[in-house]
Amino acid sequence: MNAMTKSNKIRLSLSLYLNYFVHGIGLLILTQNMRPLSSEWGTSIATVSYVISGVGIGRLLAYYLLGSFSDRFGRKKIILFGMISYSIFFIGILFTKDFKVAYLLAILAGVANSALDSGTYPTFLEMNRNNGAASILIKAAMSIGEFVLPLYIGLNENLGGWYGLSFIFAAAFLLINALLISYSQFPLQARTEKVVEHGLSSRGKMSKSKIGLVTILSLYGYTSMAVMILFTQWITLYGVDVLQMSNMQAHFLLSLYSIGSIVGVLLIFTLLKSALIRDSTLMVVMNSLSLGFLLIVCFSTYHPAVTIASFFFGITAAGGVMQIGLTIFCSMFPHAKGRVTAIFFSFGSIASFTVPIFTGMLSNSGTAYALRSDLVIASFSFVLWIIGHRLLSLSNDRTNYETERSQINFIDYWILKLLQWRFKLAKSIGIKKMNQGRPIFDPFREKKIVSRIDRLVKDHENRDHYHEIFQTILTNSKQCQTNIQEKGRVK
Ligand SMILES: O=C(O)C(=O)C[C@]1(C(=O)O)C=C[C@@H](O)C=C1
After folding, report:
1. CB of 477 shorter than 6 A to ligand 1
2. Does residue 446 have its Cβ closer than 6 Å to ligand 1?
3. Can you spell out the DSSP letters for 318-336?
4. Which one in 178, 304, 396, 471 has a CA-CA gap of 20 to 30 Å to 327?
C-alpha cells in the first residue's frame, strides 16, 4: 500500500476516534440502564451486575488471539469485526428477554472491545511513525462518550423517552462508521512474516533488560488500569462515609477527576507532540505526581484540598499514562504491535476483575481501607517506572541515540520558535524602513551583530560554523523583509 495522504490520515483518524466515542458509551450503557434492563429480563439488579462482568471475561478471553490476528490478517479486518460485534451487542441487548443471552452478548461486547484495541492502537502507531501522541486522544474520545451518555440518559428520562434509543444510536453510529472504514486506506503494516522472527515468543534472543522491561510494562498494564478503576469505584463513597461530604460534593470529586483526565490527555498530547520530554521521563514524573495527589486525597480532611487533588489525580493518573506505557511497549516490538497491545490490555482486564473483588473485601473493614489500598498500587506503578526508566536509558545508551535525538528535537522546537520571533521583528523593521524610504541592508548593524556573536562564542573551534549560521539568518531575514515590502507595494 502507498504512503497515506494527509486527508486520508485525518479521515481514518476521525473514524477511529468515533469508534472510541461509542466505546465510551458502551462502557457505561449497561450500568446506566440497570433498572430498565432488570425489569426487561425479569431479574434482580445483582444479576444485571453479574451480566456486566461478562464484558471483562470477553476481553480477557479475546485479547491475545485477536492481537495475533491483527498482526497476521491486518488491522482493518479486525477493527471491522470489532465494530460489527459491538453493534450486535447494542441491538441484541435491547431485544433479548433472557439474561443468559444477555450474558453471552456482554462477552461479545468484551470481544468487540479487544478487537477495536488490538486493531486501533497499532494503526495509530503505524500512521504516526510510532509517535504515541495520537493514541492518547483515544482516551479523550472515550472520556467524551462517558461524559455525554449520563447527560443524555438523564435528559431522556426527564422527557420520558425510551431507554433503548441510546443503544440504537450507538449501533447506528458504528454501522455507518464501519462503511466509511471499509473504504478507508490504512497505513503500511510491519510485514507479518517478521512476527515469527521477532515474535515475543523468541525469548532466547531477548536480553535480560528486555525481559525486565517486558515484565515491567505488562505489570504496568495491570497497575495503571487498577489505579483508575479503584479510584472511580470508591471515591464517591469515601467522600460521603469518611470525609462526611454531601452527596453532591462527593459526586463532584468524580466529575473533577474526569475533567482532569481530559485536561491530562490534552497536556500529554501536546508534550509528546512537541517532543519536549522523553516518554519514559514523563512516566516517572506523572506516576510520582499521581502518587502525591492520591496521598492528599487519602489523608487530607480539608475538603477543598481533596477536591483539587482529585482533579490533579485525574490529570496525572487518567490522562493517558496507560496509553504511553503501551506505546513504549509497542516500540520495543515493532513487528508484533497487535500482540503487545493484547498482552498489555489483558493485564488491564485482570485489573477490572480483581479490583472490585479485593476492594469489596477490604471495604468490610471500612471504605477508607478500600480507597487507601490504591496507594499501594500507585506506589507500585511509581517503582515500576523508576526501574523501567533506568532500563530504557541503559538499553538506549548502548544501542541507539534516541535520547540525544529527543533532546535535539526539543532544541529544534525552540530554535524554530525563536527564529519565528526574529523574523517577525525583522519584518516589522522592514515595513518601517519602507515607510521611511531607507534601504533594507544595513552593513553597520550587521557588522555589530556578527562581532557581538563573536564575543559570545565560547567554543572557539566552532566559530566559523556560527558565523555561517548567522550569515544565513541575516540573508534570509533580508529576503523576508524584501518579500513583505513587495507585498506592501503591490497592495
Ligand atoms: O536591524 C535592522 O536594520 C534590520 O533590518 C534587521 C536585520 C536583521 O535581521 O537583524 C536585517 C537586515 C539588516 O541588514 C540588518 C539587520
Report:
1. yes
2. yes
3. HSSHHHHHHHHHHHH-TT-
4. 178
- pLDDT tens, 405-444? 777 888 898 999 999 999 999 999 999 999 999 999 999 9
Report if residue 219 sits inside a domain.
Answer: yes
Half-sphere exposure of 361 (CA within 13 A, CB side): 5
Best of 431, 442, 484 for a ligand 1 pocket test (most atoms within 8 Å of beta carbon) = 442
Cell of residue 40, nine digits? 426487561
Q: How far is CA 93 from the centre of its chain?
A: 29
Q: What's the CA gap between 105 and 467, in Å, rounded? A: 70
For 321, phi then psi, to 5°, come to: -65, -35
358-395 burial: b if 16+ Cβ within 10 Å, else e: ebeebbeeebbebbbbbbebbbbbbebbeebbebbeeb
Give the rounded distance of the alpha carbon of 145 from its chain centre: 15
3-state class of 443 per DSSP?
helix
Instruction: Read off the pLDDT of residues 22-77 as tens digits, 9 standing for 90 and up.
Output: 998 887 788 777 778 888 999 887 778 778 878 888 988 898 889 889 989 999 99
Amino acid of residue 447: K
Domain of residue 250 covers 208-400
Q: Domains in the chain: how many in total?
A: 3
Is residue 203 domain-resident? no
424 in Cβ contact with 242 (< 8 Å): no
Determine if ligand 1 sits within 6 Å of the CB of residue 442. Answer: yes
Amino acid at 342: A
Domain endpoint, select from 350, 369, 400: 400
ipTM of the complex model? 0.93
Question: Do residues 161 and 248 share a domain?
Answer: no
The reply to whether 169 and 246 lie within a common domain is no
Q: What is the model's pTM?
A: 0.69
Q: Give 449 Cα–ligand 1 centroid separation in angstroms.
A: 9
**Dihedral through CA 33, CA 36, CA 38, CA 44, nearest 10?**
90
Letter string b/e over residues 418-442, b meaning 16 or more CB atoms within 10 A of that residue's CB: eeeeebeebbebbeebbeeeeebee
Please indicate, yes or no, whether residues 366 and 412 belong to a single structural domain of this protein.
no
Residues 6+ apart with CB under 8 A from 455: none
Q: What is the CATH number of the domain that holds 416?
A: 1.20.59.10
- Do 169 and 233 fall within a single domain? no
CATH number of the domain within which 46 lies: 1.20.1250.20
